[in-house]
Design brief:
Largest sheet: 6 strands, mixed
CATH architecture of the largest domain: Alpha-Beta Complex
Strand order of the largest sheet: 4-3-2-1-5-6
Number of strands: 18
Number of domains: 2
Radius of gyration: 23 Å
Bound molecules: zinc ion
Helix content: 25-40%
Strand content: 15-25%
Structural class: alpha+beta
CATH class of the largest domain: Alpha Beta
Length: 385
Amino acid sequence: MSKGTPGPAPSVSVTLTGMSHVHLDRLTRVRAAMTEQGIDTLLLSVGHDLPYLTGYEAMPLERLTMLVLPRDADATLVIPRLEAPRVTEMPGVFDLVPWGETEDPTAIVAGLARGASTIAVGDQMWARFLVELLPQLPGATYRRAVDVVGPLRMIKDRAEIDALAAAGAAVDRIAAELQAGRIPLVGRTEADVSAELSARILAEGHDVVNFAIVAAGENAASPHHHAGSRVIRTDEIVLCDFGGTMNGYCSDITRCVFTGDVASAAPEIADAYAVLHEAQQAAVAAATIGAACQDVDRAAREIITAAGYGEYFVHRTGHGIGMEAHEDPYIVEGNARPLAAGHAFSIEPGIYVSGRWGMRLEDIVVAANDGPVPMNSVDHRLVGV
Ligand code: ZN
Ligand code: ZN
Ligand code: ZN
């Protein structure tokens, strides 16, 4: 679970920067999808499709940034001149057109897109730019670029899976420290522990912290609890769900620890955690190629429901992950999409008893031909600290 991503990463991807063959290959596949869907030109502004195709993550500025990608001609990246030093040029992938402060960038984009009858635009393009473009491209039909780029982004390539694995290993090391008792809990506030987790996420090599949920005792019953002034006591569950972005790709892990001897935990907590653990492992095992996303959700939910906790599992089993902390495919009832090799997503069932306690167990998993590959492997048990 995440509280949503804040702004974009301050730096562009390190792993993929300069790998122009990767971007050229992606552009080729995007053009094939454009041909299939009858789209003449793709217009991408801020958002993650742009770095996916060009290696450049635009700042969300009022100054226009736009990749103009015609199906049958060279791509052009139109950027504010002052941003040019941040762009790694990729000859053969895109041409760069920096615009000066007194120029009209919308007219430049319109000139590059003129003649296109069907144009796909990114979801995150600011409305003001589209509103300015519309009268300059009369007669064009508009579609959503997500239908073109989304299915490609969902299938992670080798370099992307390596980046997810590196980010996963980094948060695993933090979770291991937590389970070893080397991150003190009792007597500290949730906010204080959250700040320490955030510092460790950066120290482990992430560029950005996306969230660091710390929820103690009854607060853990709120899945997206905001870490606050609640002081952590002995003999209670502390739920920690944290992650960031490292080399352009996200981590996301949840582990619960018990502040005391687990053997002294209330029987219902030990019982519920055993059910949660079994449900999470069952869902991971169910995440095979060709399985529907909803079947993975059902694998976890059936176990939790059979144990009598069904009404306390109040969210979907997981979400896709990649450049964004939450993206397609969603592991949820109603999503019949079959898993394919390269799909990356969380498996994070939870049980939340309002006013008393809550628990969640989360790993990132990548679907592969040889079976599901977890990006997290740190101890899944409820560890006493
Ligand atoms: Zn999470
Ligand atoms: Zn979430
Ligand atoms: Zn998650």
